Amino acid sequence: MSETVKFTIDGKECTAVKGQLLIDAAADNGIYIPLLCHMRDLVPAGSCRICTCKVNGRYMSACTTPVEPGMNIESNTAELNDIRKAIVEMLFVEGNHFCPSCEKSGNCDLQALGYKYQMMVPRFPYAFERRELEASTPKIFLEKNRCIFCKRCVRLIKDEQGRSIFAFKGRGKTLEINIDKKLAANMSDDLTMKAMNACPVGAILKKEVGFINSIGTRKYDKEPIGSDIEKIHQ
Amino acid sequence: MAQKVTIEPVTRVEGHGKVTIHLDDNMNVVQTRLHVVEFRGFERFVQGRPYWEAPVLVQRLCGICPVSHHLAAAKALDVIVGAGTGHGLTPTGEKMRRLMHYGQIFQSHALHFFHLCSPDFLLGYDADPAIRNVVGVAIKFPELATQGVLMRKYGQEIIAVTAGKKIHGTGAIPGGINKNLSIAERDALLNGPAPLNIDKMIEWADAALQLFKDYYMKNRDFVDNFAYFPSNHLSLVRKDGALDLYHGVMRAVDAEGNKILNDVDYQEYYNYIEEEVRSWSYMKFPYIKHLGKEKGWYRVGPLARLNTADFIPTPMAQKEFEIYKAHTNGKPNNYCLHTHWARLIELLHSAEVIRDLLRDPDLQKDDIVTKGTKKFEGVGLIEAPRGTLFHHYKINENDQITMANLIVSTTNNNEPMNQSVNFVAKKMMNGQATITEPMKNAVEIAIRAYDPCLSCATHALGKMPLDIKLYNAKGDVLDHYRS
Predict the structure, then answer these.
(1) Looking at domain A4-76, which CATH architecture does it have?
(2) Is it the case that residue B483 has pLDDT exceeding 90?
(3) In chain A, which residue's Cα lies nearest the Cα of B165?
(4) Which of A101, A135, A215 sits opposite B57 (nearest CB)?
(5) Rounded distance, CA B381 to CA B310, Å?
(6) A vs B: CB pairs below 8 A
(7) What whole-number distance in Å separates Cα of residue B317 and Cα of residue B256?
(8) In terms of CA atoms, which chain A residue is nearest residue B74?
């Protein structure tokens, strides 16, 4: 039988199954820790670091840290929130994000976090990287300028034989998301939508469905990101 | 010694431009030019983008009439997704777009009359510039200024419920629209608490028109003789000749009313319209191809529309149209300042159309998008507040835009604006050595009659102050005014 452990987040007593990832355990206790690369049930990537918390005084990413009995976790502090805001700003300046014409606007996690942390002007200079678009597959428009390298698509979207349809190419500054054109040619509509919905930004777009949701009906039009989690235990 | 006057920047219009007036050795005006000095490049940077992004991206050309760009682009993409033009959409799709468009016309015309041009009429063309503005109107005629603000607000509310928000919404998508009109939204606009309901808007639109007519009766000589010159006129008209600001066929008439283009499918506009580039302005000069550059230029906008249309399909506006047409014995109206009169008739017409659309149950239906066989090229035309707006796109097999051509309303009016400025300059500046305040304002009034949006025309960003320079024959600046 699974062992239940007790721990605290920002002073609030929480319980979870021992070994559960901190970010999921927090959500189950009604505490939202921001995330971009993490998806429940996917192998953790720990790549975006936006979920960084202080665990017993040490900086740890909540998506790669299993909960242990007696952990003292700090999450919603001025220091950590400023670090998170800085990460959001870095992601904005590193890619080319033009929210006004992006069809993911209103459904975009990165944009929603920008609002949450009240990002006005990034503290870092824009990189203005030039990345080519990949539009030659029949169902997906891959907007590489918006990719934040969360690797969700690489980990989640597979064909029937378990082969990844998306992969990274290059290293460091030249790293970019790529799509296997042969595998992509056989993607179903459902899998295409799954890929688009998994993408936390507007990098993966299903062709010809842009702007189908009117303003006011989009995910973050009425409530800020994380509200669904915070409501659970209110 | 020959001189050149420059008016820069031009005020109370949208965008940034300047006017130069060249004088000869006898101090007579030899040439006047309206220079548009902004440059952007939307046609280039939409290349490579997915086609369905165009209506949302290209509308960023402008914050005054983004709906016109939004809808013109969507209409072009209707063709690309196989939905055809006009009635190819579902009734809900087409009528929601019409509502959005007429809401836009209503707010933009109200903005122009009350905020931009009423200071000239109400306070006098020669009034102190410090008070000859919307604030001056608000102080002296607070009730009227409030009406102007609320009429604009009402139009913006219509845009918000059709496009999703008041500025830069996303309502029109290729093949239709992304929402219908809820009962609650409809009732708020139709029967909302006064004054924000359609009956009050019609009443106020009519009152604004009567106000202008009263002014006209008292100042007939001035209005009629200010920048009168013959020209061609071009617009969309409904197939049966009715005024239609959302969809129709291209029609052009000459100064005498002879049809020089009629029943033209705008998908082939490029067979009839060409654009000339001149070195001194970023704004191009369009003309009707078969008439050539010298004779083929034309006016667009309210004046042109009421010259090309045979009738207006709403009763109050039709009655006013008949009065208006009687003034020129049914012939085309070439009086520059009558554009304001025509604009106010359109304001009234828009309010009537909005009322009829709000009462139409089609707006509550769920069938909002239609698609057919994909094409790789599409043209969308619409009658924007300032005149005919052309959007033309080509895409490749990967759904990326490969070509975009935008001919914006103000661009169409480029030559007429230059003609008007030249007319006024010759009348007021011949023999004058310096620029006086009435001269500056007269030049601006001539430009303002077209309600130009110079940002749109060059696809540029910014506001438009007035800049005038006076040059001699050697190119030396003799006088310079900048507001």
Answers:
(1) Roll (3.10)
(2) no
(3) A215
(4) A101
(5) 20
(6) 55
(7) 23
(8) A211
Task: Give the closest-approach CA distance of A7 to chain B in angstroms.
Answer: 45
How does residue A170 score in pLDDT terms, banded at 50, 70 and 90? very high
Q: Give the start-to-end residue ranges of the domains of chain A.
A: 4-76, 97-206
- ipTM reported for the complex, 2 dp: 0.94
- Chain B residues in contact with A103 by the CB 8 A cut-off are 52-53, 56
pTM of this structure = 0.91
CATH architecture assigned to A97-206:
2-Layer Sandwich (3.30)
Q: Does residue A222 belong to the interface with chain B, where contact is any CB pair within 8 Å?
A: no
Q: What is the pLDDT of residue A221?
A: 95
B69, B61 Cβ separation under 8 angstroms: yes
Could you tell me where the DSSP H helices lie in chain A? 22-28, 78-94, 109-116, 152-156, 181-184, 189-198, 227-232
Residues of B in contact with A184 (CB under 8 A): none
- The whole-angstrom separation of Cα B449 and Cα B445 is 6
Q: Which residue of B has its CA nearest to A135?
A: B398
Q: What is the pLDDT of residue B458?
A: 44
Helical spans, DSSP H, in B314-402: 315-326, 338-358
Shortest Cα–Cα distance, B171 to chain A (Å): 6
Which residues of chain A neighbour B164 with C-beta distances below 8 Å? 214-216
On whether any CB of chain B is under 8 Å from the CB of A79, the answer is no
Render pLDDT for B114-138 as a digit per residue (tens, 0 to 9).
Answer: 988 888 888 887 778 788 888 888 8
Cis status of the peptide bond prior to B193, with omega within 30 of 0: no
Amino acid making up residue B265: D
Domains and their CATH numbers in chain B: 90-218+344-369 (1.10.645.10), 229-334 (no CATH)
A79: which residues sit within 8 A by CB, 6+ positions away? none
Q: Indicate yes or no: CB of B399 within 8 angstroms of CB of A141.
A: yes
DSSP state of B51: G
